[in-house]
Amino acid sequence: MEDKVKYEMEFPIQASPSLLYQYISTPSGLSEWYADDVNSRGEFFTFIWNESEEKAKLLSKKNGERIKFRWLEDEDSPYFFEIRIQVDEITKDVSIMITDFAEDDEIEEGKMLWENMISDLKQILGSS
Q: Which residue intervals define the domain START-like in the entry (predicted)?
């Protein structure tokens, strides 16, 4: 299996961190922009798109700040994806920081996917 490469992205977003956290950490929030539907049972989340379903384990979360998942298919690997809220201490500008992994030839596709999903989130939040 080819090793995956870590990549990070930053998306400035005009929304309060507490509101944003609801959208990144709850099944109802995630189902508004990340997947068609999201269910959780304890630390396991099921993400549903059209007819496909992916399960992920919640690795960690810090209230109001970040959430980190690992796809169950990658269970024995170091790969994860993390959505983090970052607030600039001086300007108070809010950004969403994405950390994800993809195979070399899939990084651009992965980035485009995140750009589209964050764009959907911004529309829901009324953020430019």
A: 1-126
